[in-house]
């Protein structure tokens, strides 16, 4: 550090210090406003990140968690605050089993159809609902409903320590097109380091195709040597 201090001044020294801080073991990188759509290891790597939206819901989230436990895969759950309030035990199960949390708003309203203040309040209410269910749990990401990103909500999410989270593989499982079609959507779009989008909510929707397709997708990824990774945090 003496050499660094002697040779780097001002912003340079601050950047070097920030880089050292960010790379310290156990220290989470700070969130940025960028919408990430690749794993922490990077696009092109032999990794994937599985992201699961719109839950929790008793029927489907439990089936997904059982599947992930069986396959020893860690995923990111993009949780709707309303559903966290209804099913707090499921949020706890997600956290207890080592998965990561993503804030997916309180009521699943697209931020581009809200005022900036409404979108911020929606995000904050969802964080509160998630924390009421799982006190102290880290919420690493924020995903805008329907991918309705605005500069304001990206900045606000980052200010709350949540990395805006996109995706690179849309399985379109929410259209319930059949297990084979969901699998083929994955097969067509997946490249190494990709972030896969699937759904486990809501309770009123039939996600049985999603669960079955997820099993096939995880088998295919494992057969091809891909391992699960975090979605990237840019910082
Ligand atoms: Zn959603």
Description:
With 235 residues, this protein is of the alpha/beta class. It has 2 domains: 1-28, no CATH class; 31-228, Alpha-Beta Barrel (TIM Barrel), CATH 3.20.20. It is built from 9 helices and 8 strands. Helix 3 (58-71) links the parallel strand 1 and strand 2. Residues 1-27 have low confidence and may be disordered. Bound molecules: zinc ion. Zinc ion is lined by residues 53-54, 104, 108, 145. One of its GO terms (molecular function) is hydrolase activity, acting on carbon-nitrogen (but not peptide) bonds. Keywords: Signal.
Count of β-strands:
8
End-to-end separation: 21 Å
Indicate the structural class. alpha/beta
* Main β-sheet description: 8 strands, parallel
* Helix percentage range: 40-55%
Q: How much of the residues is beta strand, in percent?
A: 5-15%
SSE arrangement, N to C? HHEHEHHEHEHEEHEHE
Q: What is the CATH superfamily of the largest domain?
A: Glycoside hydrolase/deacetylase
Q: Which shape, going by the Cα principal axes?
A: globular
Keywords: Signal
GO molecular function: hydrolase activity, acting on carbon-nitrogen (but not peptide) bonds
Protein name: Polysaccharide deacetylase family protein
Pfam families: Polysacc_deac_1 (PF01522)
């Amino acid at each position: 550090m003496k050499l660094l201090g002697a040779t780097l001044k001002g912003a340079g020294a601050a950047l070097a210090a920030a880089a050292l801080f960010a790379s310290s073991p156990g220290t989470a990188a700070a969130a940025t406003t960028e919408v990430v759509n690749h794993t922490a290891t990077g696009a092109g790597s032999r990794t994937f990140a599985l992201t699961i939206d719109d839950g929790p819901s008793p029927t489907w989230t439990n089936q997904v968690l059982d599947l992930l436990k069986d396959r020893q895969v860690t995923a990111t759950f993009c949780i709707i605050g309303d559903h966290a309030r209804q099913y707090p035990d499921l949020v706890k199960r997600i956290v207890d089993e080592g998965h990561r949390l993503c804030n997916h708003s309180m009521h699943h309203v697209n931020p581009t159809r809200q005022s900036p203040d409404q979108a911020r309040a929606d995000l904050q209410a969802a964080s509160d609902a998630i924390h009421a269910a799982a006190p102290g749990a880290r919420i690493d990401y924020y995903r805008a409903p329907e991918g309705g990103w605005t500069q304001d909500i990206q900045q606000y999410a980052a200010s709350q320590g949540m990395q805006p989270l996109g995706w690179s593989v849309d399985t379109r499982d929410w259209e319930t097109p059949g297990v084979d079609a969901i699998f083929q959507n994955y097969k067509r779009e997946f490249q190494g380091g990709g972030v896969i989008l699937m759904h486990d909510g809501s309770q009123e929707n039939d996600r049985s195709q999603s669960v079955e397709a997820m099993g096939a997708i995880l088998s295919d990824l494992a057969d091809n040597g891909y391992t699960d990774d975090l979605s990237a945090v840019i910082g």
